[in-house]
Design a protein that fits this description.
Keywords: Membrane, Transmembrane, Transmembrane helix. It is a multi-pass membrane protein. This protein is mainly α. The chain has one domain. The chain has nine helices and no strands. Helix 3 runs parallel beside helix 9 and helix 8 runs antiparallel to helix 9.
Length: about 200
């Protein structure tokens, strides 16, 4: 870690404390959004900028508009980007085009598609973490996924009862920072070239 990383962590901590202890402030959603925007810095430096960019769009839509389906759709793209990153493949543009059809489905079906992609993301990350070369990074990345999962469980429960935004963000904000910082360590290393004899 260098000065940029430490600076990011200090700003993150400041915003995290503000949105946790001043949850009634009229600026709390702005603080939440800035926390997610801040995750763009490590994401850009550690190779998952596209996933972090879609996360910013998702949270912007969910925090500031009533278009929840669009927000969840972009979260589907977030997990698709992480999956592609770990498989060392670029998702074809046609996949993004055809995925727009998900917006035609009702929210519960779109939520189920999101859950399936998240599950694939978790299983793939866990599989990569079992490899020896990923061990220094895997615990923190899996912790990030666990916090993300806790956040999603609270969101799902809040859909049927009263939502708990403070608790949701206590789990969600650090999950995004951990994913942005630690994704690079889980990406499969390119195989060394061995010429045919």
């Amino acid at each position: 870690m260098d000065k940029t990383d430490y600076g990011t962590l200090i700003l993150f901590l400041f915003l995290f404390l503000f949105m946790t202890f001043f949850s009634q402030s009229p600026y709390v959603n702005l603080a939440r959004f800035l926390v997610i925007c801040l995750c763009l810095i490590p994401a850009m430096r550690h190779g998952v900028l596209t996933a972090a960019f879609f996360t910013v769009i998702s949270d912007g839509v969910l925090l500031f508009t009533p278009y929840y389906k669009i927000g969840i759709y972009f979260f589907c793209l977030v997990h698709l980007c992480y999956i592609s990153f770990f498989l060392d493949k670029k998702p074809p543009l046609l996949l993004f085009f055809f995925s727009l059809a998900l917006l035609a489905f009702p929210l519960p079906i779109l939520g189920a598609c999101y859950a399936i992609l998240f599950l694939i993301h978790i299983l793939l990350a866990y599989s990569l973490c079992t490899q020896k070369k990923a061990k220094p990074f895997c615990q923190l990345y899996l912790l990030g996924l666990f916090l993300f999962l806790c956040c999603d469980i609270l969101v799902a429960v809040g859909y049927f009862t009263a939502p708990q935004p403070v608790l949701i963000w206590i789990f969600y904000a650090p999950s995004q920072l951990l994913l942005a910082f630690r994704a690079r360590g889980l990406q499969p290393q390119p195989k060394s070239f061995v010429p045919d004899l």
